[in-house]
Amino acid sequence: MFDLPKIPLAHWIDAFVAWISHFEGFFYVITNALGGIINAIQWVFDLLPIPVFILAVIALTWWLTRHERKLGLLVFELLGFLYIWNQGFWRDMTQTLTLVLTASLLAIIIGVPLGLWAAMNRTVARIVKPLMDFMQTMPAFVYLIPAVALFGIGMVPGVVASVIFAMPPTVRMTQLGIQQVSGELIEAADSFGATRWQRLTKVQLPGALSTIMAGINQSMMLALSMVVIASMIGAMGLGTQVYFAVGRNEAGSGFAAGLAIVILAIILDRITQAMNHKQH
Amino acid sequence: MTTKVEVKNLTKIFGKHVAKAQTMLENGHTKQEILVATEATVGVDRANFAVEDGEIFVIMGLSGSGKSTTIRMLNRLIKPTSGSVLIDGEDIATMTKAQLQAVRRQKMSMVFQSFALLPNRTVQQNTEFGLEIQGVSKSERAAKAQKALAMVGLGEYASQYHDQLSGGMQQRVGLARAFANDPEVLLMDEAFSALDPLNRREMQDELLDLQANLHKTIIFISHDLNEALHIGDHILIMKDGEIVQIGTPEEILSNPADDYVERFIEGVDRSQVYTAGNVMVRATTVNVEKAGPRLAARRMRDNEISSLYAIDSERHLLGIIDAKDVRQAIDQHQEDIRPLVKDIVPTTTIDTPLADLMDAVSSTPVPYAVVDERHRLQGIIIRGAVLGALSGNEVNVNV
């Protein structure tokens, strides 16, 4: 083993990143587009007075769960948000929310069509599967390095790294959901003369919707788990507070910020689950 | 009757080396040989049949017989390897995608074994599905769906979801969805097989009722011979991808083509298929307007029976005459036997199913007389003939 020269994999990847960096214009456009989305969402959150924001989320939750009467969840949301406000984490929380929502949105925009394609084409499925395994198991820190090289410092590389890490469940669950739609339903659509598009939109997507929603929920949770890591490359938010606490060796403030992340995670999880249950 | 659907040399081979398998098939090799040589499975082997306009045509066979593949080739859910499917003379097998879509939208609808209803839609929305695909306007499709639902007796359930309905009701929605398109040809793939026996029977009868008004061409897949015999105008029996026999229910029962069909019909409830006309035998009669007691007595003696069916010159059934009364008349030198006629004969008609007669036939002392609409005697039903027909032994007496 020691006689063999070391395979210069690291060198090759460096060379690849350096080469891909030449497409500056391309990455500039993407960075600006993502920056635009992030700023727009953040602008809305900054505009809303805190009590209005809290009431809006509670009202949304109440409407989504109105058939189940989950009073406990509404109380939890109220207390949770009051805690975040009280601790002075409000702006951090909205920044984290922006990061998670943008990453989830991208995961849906890229992941759902990719999952559809994989469900309908075996070759694509065979390529996508190991790619998703790779994306999900590669330590998320590793994505940070090229992300900075290509997108600079700030929220945008944070979102990009989060999307790569968080997208696999959406792709997989979309593929699974579409493949689980019963063969007879597909035959029924075909036998009535449906086009491929009609079959997709009227039969396959509605049939797969709850599975796809479960995947999106998972993606969102994974994106949230990326916030501390993303804060290392300048993505602001609750993660930054945790990261700083680690640097200053302050267990207390670390927990305080970590608890805020947990609260946000529970609220996001319950709301997306409620959206899923709501269908009919 | 005109031919609506004609199938010529329809073949389906599944697997990789289809061309080679097909050549082997044409050269007379068996399916087993083909499977070994090419790893291809012959699903349907050169099927030929014709379905008449407005009839119910049942394709039946056990699982693996190729019946599901056959029906799916009729609307090209499965593309035939070779052969043609002519609907009104147009070949489904070779038409373009656009033409096929048009035929599926306008001419044929399908009803599925496990209903294939969309779970996210109400009964009404499910019924509208085919019309929605065609791009029919919202108001028109609502009206047509309402009409179709009313037809199957589900008008009240339009806003429900199908998981709130029983199996029989769900399949009614499946039927309504198919009828809403007003297709000329209806393909029913084991449509009632998922229902319990009572429900199945009810749906079969309902289908027959609907068909009496609609006169669609219905091609119905079944593995249940009783079902096939009950609803089919013609029955096609398949085995291992080949057609074994095509015929009317009575032809199948009375002249099974081979052992396979014979084994199939062993378990059949014949009482549902046979009618009084199938089992009646010739009655020994006497025309009371012409004959006297001596002729009557002689006829009884010749036929070794103790009573005669009394008729008039137009063969109208009058009743029965006993040997005892005839002898008395001879003793008393009475020439007219008309007063001897006892009007105690139970009657039935030619198309009464045996099932309806079974109890009556076994409890009456005088055999049933079969009469036509003008009360003319056609024959009589004796117990032995009924039992014979039901056991399958003497089925070709009157068919």
TrEMBL record, chain A:
Transmembrane helix: present as a keyword of the record?
yes
Any one GO MF annotation of this record: carnitine transmembrane transporter activity
User: Which residues, by range, are in coiled-coil regions?
Assistant: none
Q: Name one Pfam family in it.
A: BPD_transp_1
What region holds the ABC transmembrane type-1 domain? 93-272
- One GO biological process term: choline transport
Transmembrane stretches, by residue range? 12-31, 43-65, 71-90, 97-120, 140-166, 222-245, 251-268
Places the protein is found: Cell membrane; Membrane
Signal sequence region: none
Question: What PROSITE patterns does UniProt report for this protein, alphabetically?
Answer: ABC_TM1
Keywords annotated in UniProt? Cell membrane, Membrane, Transmembrane, Transmembrane helix, Transport
Gene Ontology terms, cellular component aspect?
ATP-binding cassette (ABC) transporter complex
Write down the Gene3D superfamilies for this protein, in alphabetical order: MetI-like
The entry assigns this protein to a family as follows: Belongs to the binding-protein-dependent transport system permease family.
UniProt name for this protein: Putative glycine betaine carnitine ABC transporter, membrane-spanning subunit
Give the organism, scientific name: Lacticaseibacillus manihotivorans DSM 13343 = JCM 12514
TrEMBL record, chain B:
Q: Could you name the domain of life of the organism this protein comes from? A: Bacteria
User: What membrane topology was assigned to this protein in its record?
Assistant: Peripheral membrane protein
Instruction: State the top-level EC class.
Output: translocase
One example GO MF annotation:
ATP binding
Checking Pfam families in the record gives: ABC_tran, CBS
Which CDD domains does the protein's record reference?
ABC_Pro_Gly_Betaine
Q: Where is the CBS domain?
A: 279-337
Any single Gene Ontology cellular-component annotation: plasma membrane
State any GO BP term from the record.
glycine betaine transport
What subcellular compartments does it reside in? Cell inner membrane
Which positions fall inside the ABC transporter domain?
5-265
Q: Which keywords label this protein?
A: Amino-acid transport, ATP-binding, CBS domain, Cell inner membrane, Cell membrane, Membrane, Nucleotide-binding, Transport
* Coiled-coil regions listed in the entry: none
Which residues, if any, are the signal sequence?
none
PROSITE patterns with a match to the protein in the record: ABC_TRANSPORTER_1, ABC_TRANSPORTER_2, CBS
Keyword check for Transport, yes or no: yes
Q: Show the catalytic activity.
A: a quaternary ammonium(out) + ATP + H2O = a quaternary ammonium(in) + ADP + phosphate + H(+)
Q: Hey, which family's this protein in? A: Belongs to the ABC transporter superfamily.
NCBIfam families linked: proV
Task: Please describe the quaternary structure of this protein.
Answer: The complex is probably composed of two ATP-binding proteins, two transmembrane proteins and a solute-binding protein.
For this entry, the protein name equals Quaternary amine transport ATP-binding protein
Species in which this protein is naturally found: Lacticaseibacillus manihotivorans DSM 13343 = JCM 12514
